[in-house]
Fold this sequence. Notes:
Helix content is 23%, strand content 23%. By secondary structure, it is α+β, with helices and mostly antiparallel strands. Strand 12 (327-336) and strand 13 (339-345) form a beta hairpin. 49% of the residues are buried.
Amino acid sequence: MKPFAPRLGRAVPVSALIVLALLTGCAAPTSEAKAPMRPSAPMPMPTPSTALAPSLRVATDCDTLVDTAAARAATGRALRAVVTTSDDPSPVYYSELRAGALMCEYRSEDANEPTGRDSGVFVGVLPIVGQDQGFRLIPDEWSITVDDGGYFDCPGMDSRRCLFGKNVGGYQVVGMVTSRAVDRSEARRVFEGAVAVVAALDEPDPLWEPEGGSLRAVAAPEEFLALDAIAETLGVDTVYVAKAEGGENAAGFLKSASLTGAYWASFGVPGTDQGVHLAVLPGGATYYDTVKTGRVAGGSEVLSVAGLGDDAYVSTRHFGGPEGSGRAFTYLDVKVKNSWLQLNSTSPEGLERLAREVIANLS
């Protein structure tokens, strides 16, 4: 059995999707990063005029949001709070932070116990202010009925997982309880307790926008750049869309891409295993800095690219083999117009030119 992780749908990380796409003749991947997502106490809401970066837009904390007694009873195990992390350094996996969401995760205290690793609780609160495009992705994947703006169900015959969600004012509450044998009534207590906390909150502040604007939001693959323009830039006859954000491929814990304008798409070259992957997070320059700093501190080799955006660097990552081996992918990360753009491919030729074309189109 796999360790508990706050993946509420069946979708796998963008990295795995793109590796699979490329190895079957499509396009390219992303990998791991860790970013704190659980503040330990309520954070003040800065006004748009003074905020220099996105901030938490949910005025509560995890200790208040999650009924830990119910969580322990639901899983049958002692739980500890853990930091919810992104497992992918793609811009789209920072969309929840960009949106000001609160994410709370609790796991079994005995991390060495094989059965205990499956026990956990995840509850997330996403400020939506009337926009709930991603809300039905999780229940639809599990064929769960949404009734009166919410759902609660423990699908399957083994009672190992209960999923829940509800629109509450300007917020969405989404969560999961998982264990070898979930107590359904206690799991519902976790759900109802979180809903009650969120129902008492004031409406969230508007989504933070950087002074000076950002790259345009993307909502479809060809909004990055027309397919024929991508093909011309890469020096090939044609490309096709292999995979893209949305549905079972939706990225992030809370499916917030439609709120922030984050998007990813993989483009393949017919008859080959070549292609290119594009991802963008408008207003996400803060997270570009976070990931770059982490990669440098971790000993990764990054090569600066002069004259591209406000800052840019190239790095190489390997997939499909033991650490340090496997197929090599070239990544080009660009901080531009308060945003984060990422391109990657097994073939580095044309990436910088393509980045300039995409930036011009989204500016």
